[in-house]
Amino acid sequence: MDDPRFWIDKCTQQLVRITGRAVDFEEDPWLLGPVGGLSEIGNEWLDLEAERHGGSVRTGGLLQEMSLLDGPGFNASDLAQPVVEFYERTSAWRMEVWSQWCPAMWPFGWFISSVFSKRLQQLNLPLRPLETAYGMDSQVLAVRDQRGSQVGAAWLRTLRSTGQAIYSGWYSAVTPPGADRPSIRVVFPLPNGSVTVLLRPEVRSDGALILSSPLGPFGGDGAYLVVARSDRRSGWVRRVPLAERFVVFVDDEGVLRTDHELNFSQVPVLRLHYRLEAGR
């Protein structure tokens, strides 16, 4: 390919191969998720993932049941009911979004957006608050196997004002190595690989859901860059110093809201706030 941006992708993937670790996805299935093509990501990967699982695509929620996350220290029955309804029937909810970048990190966000995000239509986080003034459209498409069990769900988000894709992610429940209970895994397909984030769930005393993706050693909750071989049996993985925290809660007026913080190592990068409304 003559497009110089293609070579940027190739260099990024080569960096993961050199600085990361080789993995066998049969031994570490928690890292295996959908991968994207060489150009625009969009939602092209979804049909391929459904075919890989021998399943069908239909509207649904991010998780078939929140109880899939149950384990020592977490019981989904303690969550506020609107939180459960959002994750199990996400397609029925509308979303309003506000964003605020750390001023020192805004140039970094602009660079990533210019070089990768807008071209790939993936991880295209809004750079200015007014970009989300008209809200965000979201569509959740669940893949179910031949027995009717949900193996994962794609969450596709676009800006309502422009129709521009923000990101597409693959949601499922997995148990990281050595963990005592499942986490939510979100896979963002990229060319020949993905950014994979594992979020550990907790329940706050008021029924709010806290999801955290901390810094830490390989094999734990956190963020990973994955490059897959063409046969998708093996590849390379590098842990990256991105930390996220979500708090999904019901406010004093009964409105479901989410606070989302993204940090690079210990440096704040971006804060997002979502207002979620049922009944679409």
Walk me through what this model shows:
With about 280 residues, the chain is an alpha+beta fold. It has one domain. Helices cover about 15% and strands about 40% of the residues. The chain is built from four helices and 14 strands. Strands 1, 2, 3, 4, 5, 6, 7, 8, 9, 10, 11, 12, 13 and 14 form a 14-stranded antiparallel beta sheet that branches. A hairpin with a 2-residue loop joins strand 7 (about 185-190) and strand 8 (about 195-205). The longest helix is centred in the first third of the chain and has 16 residues, at about 5-20. It is globular and about 50 Å long. The chain starts with a helix and ends with a strand.
Provide a compact summary of the structure:
By secondary structure, the chain is of the alpha+beta class.
How is this fold's topology laid out?
Layout: H1 4-19, E1 21-24, H2 44-52, E2 56-59, H3 81-88, E3 93-101, H4 106-120, E4 136-144, E5 150-159, E6 165-174, E7 183-190, E8 193-203, E9 209-213, E10 222-228, E11 234-240, E12 242-250, E13 256-264, E14 267-278
Antiparallel strand pairs: 1-11, 2-4, 3-14, 4-5, 5-6, 6-7, 7-8, 8-9, 8-10, 9-12, 10-11, 12-13, 13-14
